[in-house]
Design goal:
The structure is a single chain. Helix content is 48%, strand content 9%. The chain is mainly alpha-helical. The strands form 5 sheets. It has a 3-stranded antiparallel sheet. The protein has a two-stranded parallel ribbon with strand order 1-2. Helix 7 links the parallel strand 8 (212-216) and strand 9. Helix 1 (21-36) packs across helix 10, helix 6 (197-207) crosses helix 7 and helix 19 crosses helix 21. It is elongated, with a radius of gyration of 32 Å. 37% of the residues are buried. The structure holds one RNA strand.
Length: 504
RNA sequence: GGCGCUAUCGUCUAGGGGUUAGGACGGAAGAUUCUCAAUCUUCAAACCCGGGUUCGAUUCCCGGUAGCGCUACCA
């Protein structure tokens, strides 16, 4: 058996904002690959952009990744032998290697000003030529350069791109080639002394012994520069896997204006992590056979394959995410769903801050009843409006209720039903309510929709909704609880409806 | 402008030189339920265009077109 080096991958986000679905998908594919290969997953924080990086974003990032079910073997919070894992703590390393490249004449000092470079670019554009740096400062004598720099002249450090074409292998796209002429000598350290992303990423990946660089395809065009850097530094070039972009319905890169895009937002919406992970996995990857749709993380580790990742960009489809969410909601543990739902009721001030046992039990039943009706848990309090926000006026005024209420049969049913309810002195159970319905049925000679629609409107405000058998006990129990918002009993509803009906 | 990547139902995708081009979301119809949702059944829906290679291309090659990305002393 030939021993292969252990797989080491990394996810390297910038802590400049919330974790976005695109990055989350990159994190997921890295993690799946690492776990499948029994390799190491590394978290590295790319905070060289001091202006935009914030510690709270790093904390949030870690929280979001863990929420999704991911973990890592090395990282700023868990340590590791090849750290530090924050770029801001690695400046010395970057400078050391930059000076080394300079000494070996693989890089050179560049004294060109921003204006000069701008002029060059303009000129290139006019001539329909690739916009690459002219290489003017390449010709400078290195000793002379160092003297000028020592004298205080601002100088950036540029890498010499080799004359030969740059090729590399990408697991999802195959072999990729860039002609040398189309690749500019990249700046690796700014004249301010701050190293540049394309450079530090190579130093870090090499030093952290990353074997597979799995990242977004917005980095594909940067890869030749990075490959040249690996070679100049004398490091082995890793395998690459560039993941396609996630787009919005308008085929533009998915962004805030398409709706929710951050993991935190999806969590707040009441999307289950297993649903999101499953959806993300299916965005750009399909299992052998291509017919299976639902996977747990464990199953994904088994089935996932980088070779089967599709190179074409994918449009984010909220409907399919919702379908998966409904799927997982249905089979999720009842208690867990209840716990996750409670905050939505509390935010709407429908239930107590610290519900007692009776209230909790009642609420759990409501949640159990309504979960099959929602795409996301944050819809659940609105779905319970028939309980908490019954209003006779609006029920009567509602467009799709009116024809029913005004029909002869409808009026007959409402009248008979109201009379029966008012005549009964006690509250209702599912059974006693059913017998009233039966009496109304016999008296009015109506059945089916003609019978149930008007009754539903009177009791719940809407002609459609969950089973009466489950709704009636919830209404009656609720009416006896002390809640921030009183839940009207069936009798109360009927009288309210009657008096509202009385004055047109 | 230059360079790169991409191209199968509306969407996510499977497939692959000869197939009734498969699955899923969404849509439509039906069954079921008092209604709605759920569930089940059925249906509609696709190989970007043009050349080549080949007995035969949706599949392989080339070109076009379109979309996206990079083209920074951003990451």
């Amino acid at each position: 058996m030939t021993s292969r080096p252990t797989v080491r991958v990394r996810f390297a986000p910038s802590p400049t904002g919330l974790l976005h679905v695109g990055n989350a998908r990159t994190a997921l594919f890295n993690w799946l690959f690492a776990r499948q290969e029994k390799g190491a997953n590394i978290l590295r924080i790319e905070d060289t952009d001091v202006e935009r990086s914030e510690a709270r974003h790093e904390t949030q990032l870690i929280e979001d990744l863990r929420w999704l079910g991911m973990d890592w073997d090395e990282g700023p919070d868990v340590g590791g032998n090849l750290g530090p894992y924050r770029q801001s703590d690695r400046m010395e390393i970057y400078h050391r290697y930059a000076e080394q490249l300079l000494d070996e004449h693989k890089a050179y000092l560049c004294f060109c000003t921003a204006e000069e470079l701008e002029r060059e670019r303009k000129h290139a554009a006019e001539q329909h030529l690739p916009q690459v740096y002219s290489g003017k400062c390449r010709a400078l004598d290195p000793g002379e350069g160092k003297r000028r720099r020592a004298g205080g002249e601002p100088a950036a450090i540029r890498l010499k791109i080799p004359e030969h074409p740059i090729r590399f292998h990408d697991i999802v796209r195959g072999d990729v080639t860039f002609e040398s002429e189309s690749v500019s000598d990249p700046i690796i350290v700014r004249s301010s002394g701050m190293p540049v992303y394309n450079y530090v990423v190579v130093v870090d990946d090499a030093l952290m012994k990353i074997t597979h660089v799995i990242r977004g395809d917005d980095h594909l065009s940067n890869t030749p520069k990075q490959v040249a850097l690996y070679e100049a530094l004398g490091f082995a070039v890793p395998e690459f896997a560039h993941l396609s972009t996630i787009l919005g319905p308008d085929r533009e890169r998915l962004s805030k204006r398409h709706g929710a895009t951050s993991i935190a937002q999806f969590r707040e919406m009441g999307i289950l992590p297993e649903a999101l992970v499953n959806y993300l996995a299916l965005l750009g990857w399909a299992p052998t056979g291509g017919t299976r749709e639902t996977f747990t993380l464990k199953e994904l580790i088994k089935e996932f394959s980088l070779e089967r990742v599709t190179p074409s960009p994918a449009i984010f489809d909220f409907e399919k995410l919702y379908w998966l969410n409904r799927h997982y909601l249905k089979s999720a543990d009842q208690q867990r769903v209840a716990t996750l739902s409670l905050p939505y009721f509390q935010a709407a001030r429908l239930v107590s801050e610290n519900p007692g046992a009776d209230e909790q039990e009642w609420l759990n039943k409501i949640i159990g009843l309504l979960v099959p009706y929602v795409n996301r848990l944050d819809e659940i309090s609105e779905k319970s409006n028939f309980l908490f926000r019954y209003d006779a006026q609006t029920a009567i005024a509602k467009e799709d209720n009116r024809p029913l209420l005004q029909s002869e049969a409808g009026q007959k049913v409402v009248a008979a039903f109201a009379k029966k309810v008012q005549a009964s002195s006690n509250g209702f159970s599912a059974e006693s309510f059913k017998s009233i319905i039966n009496e109304v049925k016999n008296e009015t000679g109506t059945k089916g929709k003609d019978l149930f629609h008007p009754v539903r409107i009177v009791v719940t405000g809407s002609h459609s909704g969950p089973d009466f058998d489950r709704v009636i006990p919830l209404i009656e129990t609720g009416s006896r609880l002390v809640l921030p918002q009183h839940v009207m009993s069936v009798r109360e509803r009927v009288s309210a409806f009657q008096s509202a009906w009385g004055r047109p």
